[in-house]
Each structure stands twice: as C-alpha cells, then as structure tokens.
Amino acid sequence: AGAETVKRAVELDVASRFQESLVCYQEGIDLLLQVVKATKDEAKKHRYRQKISEYMTRAEDIKKHIEKEKRDGKYHKQIRIEENATGFGYEKLFHEYLTEIVSEVWVEDPYIRHVHQASRYLLYNFLRFCEMLIKGPCKVKTIHLLTSYDEVSGRSQQMSGLEEIQQSLRNYGVTLNIEFSSSIHDREIRFNNGWMIKIGRGLDYFKKPQGRFSIGYCDFDLRPCHETTVDVFHTKHTKKM
C-alpha cells in the first residue's frame, strides 16, 4: 500500500498537482515507515530508508513551493469530491483558511433558498456555514450574501428564513447583508484575508438525508456528497475584495 501511495504521489508531482502530491507523499512515507519497523532483513531496511529519505526530501521541497505560492498570491488547490464521498463538512473545506484576521465574508450563491419538501436543504446549508464562522477561530463581523429570489416556493418564505438567520447572527454581533440578483450564476466564497473558494455546486453539495433521524442529518462530515470540484485560490489582486 505504501508503494502504491508513493507511486500516486510521483504521478501527481509530475502533473504539477502539488497539493495532492504532498498528501500522498506524506501518507506513503507513513506506510513505508511501518514496513521498515516490521522488516527484519537489514538490507531491505536500508533500501527502504534510502527511498523514504528521498521522498521526505521531495515532500519538503513541495511544501516550500506551496508556501512560496501562498506568499506570492499564486496558490491554487483543487479538491475533487467524489459521488457519495463523506468527510467533507464545511469545517473540512474552510477551517484552514479562516484565520484570526478574517472579519468579513462574501458568499455568492444563486440558490440560498427555502427548504423544499422533496428537494434540497439550501437555507439550512447556509445556516450551517454561518455556525461554522461563529465558532471561529476567525472574528467575523460581517457576512455579505448575494443570491437570487426563490420563484418556486415563494419570496416570502425565502425572506422569512433569511431574516431569521439575520436576527440570530445579530445576537452574536454579526451583521448579515442580503442582496438579490436575477443574473447571478457563479458560486463563490471569499474571505478578507485573500482566500477565495469556488465550489461547483456552491454550498449545496450534500445529498438529502435519508430521514430526520438518520446518521448524517446533523453532522455534515457523515453526510454523503454529490460529485463536485472545489478550487481554492489565494491572491493579493482579487478585484472583488
């Protein structure tokens, strides 16, 4: 398993998918270290240690490269969420970028709407995202939401839900500014520390829970996902900031 993981790391490295490559190198090195501990043949141990040393050196070089890209504002990380994958709650995706200096957040998503009985839990998703922001470690004071009107279930239900979230956030010292656009299509989340996250499905990449008392209903890390792609950028020249 260690050899296969390292082989995948090398393939990703050659393809310049450095973030994914680094993860595979780290996992592969851990697996190979376990093999070394279990191996009694000293010659094999020596060969394993040599390869591990090479992989560790390459992993460290990639880590430095990624850090330089972050400093230069050229960082790009892509995460592919597979169909029915779990373990991709909002904390998993966003926590790394919610540093203490984050005080303002922009959310652009055309489908922050009412809870459809047979469809998606869109307002609940946005509420869950807001809860994550409240828990920190960032000190969010303002959230800007740009979405579109719900012409299916009705604007009044949509506004009622959003206003309830708005009031609840106010109790925590957070202002929610809500704007509507009939032409918005892109889905994008930005933080005022320079991070920008684009998710193909926006905040709505979770599948509908099987029931109100099924595993994954409350804990999004346990909720199966729809297939989607997440792109993370860091730039010092984000015009929308």
From TrEMBL:
<dbReference type="Pfam" id="PF16565">
    <property type="entry name" value="MIT_C"/>
</dbReference>
<dbReference type="InterPro" id="IPR038113">
    <property type="entry name" value="MITD1_C_sf"/>
</dbReference>
<dbReference type="InterPro" id="IPR045331">
    <property type="entry name" value="MITD1_N"/>
</dbReference>
<protein>
    <submittedName>
        <fullName>MITD1 protein</fullName>
    </submittedName>
</protein>
<dbReference type="InterPro" id="IPR032341">
    <property type="entry name" value="MITD1_C"/>
</dbReference>
<feature type="domain" description="MIT">
    <location>
        <begin position="1"/>
        <end position="73"/>
    </location>
</feature>
<dbReference type="InterPro" id="IPR052817">
    <property type="entry name" value="MIT_domain_contain_protein1"/>
</dbReference>
<dbReference type="InterPro" id="IPR007330">
    <property type="entry name" value="MIT_dom"/>
</dbReference>
<dbReference type="Pfam" id="PF04212">
    <property type="entry name" value="MIT"/>
</dbReference>
<dbReference type="InterPro" id="IPR036181">
    <property type="entry name" value="MIT_dom_sf"/>
</dbReference>
